[in-house]
Amino acid sequence: MKQLKKFHAMLERYRGLLEKSNAIEIAEKLVDEVGLKRIYEKTGQPEDEARLENVVELLNSIDIFVASHPGETGLENYLDEISLLTDIDRWDPDRPSVTLMTLHSAKGLEFPVVIIAGLEDGLFPLSRAAEDPDDLEEERRLFYVGITRARKKLYLLHAQSRHRFQSGDFGGGFRSIPSRFLKEIPEEYTRTSAPQGSGYRSYQERLRFKRMTARKMAANQQNNAPNNGSDFKIGQYVEHDVFGRGQILNVDVSNLGTKLTIQFSNRSIKKLIAEYANLKTSDKSESQS
Fold first, then answer.
1. pLDDT of residue 289
2. Residue 175 reports pLDDT greater than 70
3. What digits encode the pLDDT tens for the residues 93-113?
4. Exposure winner among 32, 75, 259, 284, fewest CB in 10 A?
């Protein structure tokens, strides 16, 4: 009972702060008071390090929201921003708009035009569903729900290639297999439209552009980077236990820690908190090719 009264008193105290303090001030004060950082830092367990990273990233998210929403910096504003309200919760059938939703939430609704994307084996149906006849049939019923939502036009889309996480690494573009459900639709009811050129080639071109842009950004920031007081510098190479070798593109030092933007050798770009990422500096500076 004593602990419950203490908890109630804390809630009342923070309720009084809602009108006086912005979201990041309340969040930082709460995290400090309950001692989340101290708890996770003491254990030394990898899972607690991950939990601590989540706490820090949440604070970063709130800090960014407050900085980018002048005049609407309250905790209620932030919660409204990240609430799990979907487009269907805000859908007004009398207002022309594009509504984004899952197939499950589309049940019982109808629209003049419906677009279903990602119709590839492994995505729809899911790869694990293909191993069980009952699961596959449930996916097929869900597909039927989707296509019958359209009153006038129905567009069914699949990618020629897709960037996928595979074997512990981002391997690049992989050829996609059109969903088996597409083949079950009689041909007289469909009209196929193929894109111009190779989707895989387009993906590779985008990847090269992204790589070139990241290198230019790193070079520009390295030439103009101020002394930010961090041991990490823009352009420096580091090693990560999971992501491997990478180059630092940006260093952002704040009271929440040192946030590093790193492009790794697999071309992925990650944002990590230096204090918890266990990075090792590398003396090698050869190009990431």
1. 39
2. yes
3. 777 878 888 888 888 888 999
4. 284
The one-letter code for the residue type at 286 is E
Determine the pLDDT at residue 195. Answer: 64
Name residue 283's amino acid: D
